[in-house]
Amino acid sequence: MNIPIDWNNTKEWDLYFEENQVVIKDIANYEIEDSLRYFSAVANRKVWVSGCGLELSPWLFSYLNCEVLATDISKTAIKFQSELLKKNPFKLLNQLQPVLDEIDIEYQTKFIEPQIKVADFRNESPNELFDVVLNNNAIQGLSNSDIEKAAKVFFNATEKGGIMISSTMNVQGEKRTEIENAYVRSGYFIANLEAEQWYRKKLEDTGILYVMILGNPMVPQWDQYQNKGGKEQEEKDKEILRSFRTEYQERLQVNYEKDKETYRPEIDKLAYIIYNTG
To answer: Residue 246 — left, alpha, or beta (φ > 0 → left; ψ -120 to 50 → alpha)?
Structure first.
């Protein structure tokens, strides 16, 4: 079953999670490794995993000395998370000892009972503060007004000097800008924002179909040049996309220096909008 088209449809999410539940014995090493990708940011800290779905991170973080709150609008997802907690993950973690050893931070293999509950992060505040708020691919399908609501809830739940990590899947262009702006309006600080949005607008204004891969605009092979200039036009478009790179790099440096002057690490709440492909 595919992800629901209407992200407000709780019943559809319940069905989706029911059909896609993870079987513990079948969890692959890469799935554990992927679930630990933000562990260096949350190690030994208090973390809210908002819109947790079938994520393994609340389970793993709880057994690695993190104070965890995991919430989702789906009762099926929360039931899965509650049952997962009864399983000890260390057999799987031991297989990934090199992964943990590569994390340049001290951690403890200690279980802290997490909070797991049904809640809508758009309008239900946890009424407590967290060092880290995580939202993994659980915001991009919402309306702009709902993203604004969620951003405010996240901001109010983040400690001073804390961070928000919002991971998105294949979100580029205008939608990414809308998400960034919602977080900024809520009060978060986003590094290099001016340069990134300038670059994005320049690329969008070309009207050229592109995708971002490792931070670079690439022309996909989707037959868009068939009967529209062919290879010659494709090369011209690639050159146009590349033409903004030098100024973008210069703007990044200026933005970086400006951010150094304005960012207050003990006060400001920092948001990272992560772009993932899939």
So the answer is: alpha
CATH fit for domain 10-192+263-276, picks 1.10.3720.10, 3.30.565.10, 3.40.50.150, 1.20.210.10 = 3.40.50.150
Helix/strand/coil (H/E/C) assignment for every residue in the chain: CCCCCCCCCHHHHHHHHHHCCCCHHHCCHHHHHHHCCCHHHHCCCEEEEECCCCCCHHHHHHCCCCEEEEEECCHHHHHHHHHHCCCCCHHHHHHCHHHHHHCCCCCCCCCCCCEEEECCCCCCCCCCCEEEEEEECCCCCCCHHHHHHHHHHHHHCEEEEEEEEEEEECCCHHHHHHHHHHHHHHCCECCCHHHHHHHHHHHHHCCCCCEEECCEEECCCCCCCCCCCHHHHHHHHHHHHHCCHHHHHHHHHHHHHHHHHHCCCCCCCEEEEEEECC
- How confident is the prediction along the chain (278 residues), in pLDDT tens digits per residue? 789 999 999 999 999 999 998 877 777 767 777 888 888 888 889 999 999 999 989 988 998 889 999 999 999 999 999 988 888 776 666 665 666 666 666 777 788 999 999 999 999 999 999 999 999 999 999 999 999 999 999 999 999 999 999 999 888 888 999 999 999 999 999 999 999 999 999 999 999 999 888 889 999 888 888 877 788 899 999 999 999 999 999 999 999 999 999 999 999 999 999 887 75
Cβ atoms of residues 168 and 271 within 8 Å: no
| Amino acid type, 84 | L
CA 140 to CA 274: how far, in whole Å?
A: 11
**Strand partners of residue 217:** 212
